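Handover notes (outgoing to incoming on-call)

Open items:
1. Carbohydrate ABC transporter membrane protein 2 (CUT1 family): sequence verified, structure written out, both below. Nothing else pending on this one.
2. Nothing else urgent.
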Amino acid sequence: MRTRPVVRVGQYLALAAYIVFLGFPLLWLVSASVKSSSELAALDMNVIPKSLNWGNYTEALQKQGLARSAVNSLIVSLLSMVLVVALSMPAAYALARFKGRLRTVGITWILVSQVFPVILIIIPLFLVLRQVALVDTLFGLVLVYTTFTMPFALWMLQGFVAAIPTDVEEAAAIDGATRFQTLRRIVFPLLMPGIVATAMFSFVAAWNEFFFALVLIQSPENYTLPVALKMFVGGEGKVALGPLAAGAVLATIPSLVIFSVLQRRLTGGLLTGSVKG
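Carbohydrate ABC transporter membrane protein 2 (CUT1 family) structure tokens:
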């Protein structure tokens, strides 16, 4: 059935409006990052700056240790991502395939963890981590991020596992494949889109997290990027808008790179799944 031209034009207009809606904040941020202090102070709403002031990027990199904080964020995010994916895969498979009381307990834990206010546990969490000497350490932050990201990642991944027909695994078993061979050669390739989606979610969640890092990290050399960007706000409320915008632009780049790399694997996994399904 052919789409009418009027409908097609309307679809393109809606798509263009959606792109503008999503892209405008990033465009404004990039514009603010190259504006001078006087232009920003004038609250000029023009997206195109009157002159390019690249000094904001120099100031952002030289002050507050932004480069070191970016490395810390990258370490914490990558380790959290690997741990979340590695722990979620077997748990999600068990949750999706094996019925019983354990599944009920697991589902209940996931749902409760999603509605539980984090603010209520921050002090007990701080005291526990201090007892085991993990306060003000990147490893402690990795453990916290892994713990709090896993419930949603597990819920998301078990949905992908449940979507894989059990008939495929039964056919592999009839052909003589062991459980491990079935998981490695059949289930794992079909599950690749879910694994990639879980990895992207875990990385972005850890990369953008601010509250736990603000409370648990105290030394400037261990600051993550969100905490380092907060330092551009002075004690009297004075904000260095230009360097802050430049730092925010720089902080956005790694997330876009990781998304671009993993997005290719996501597409490849979908194609693999369609062939083998």
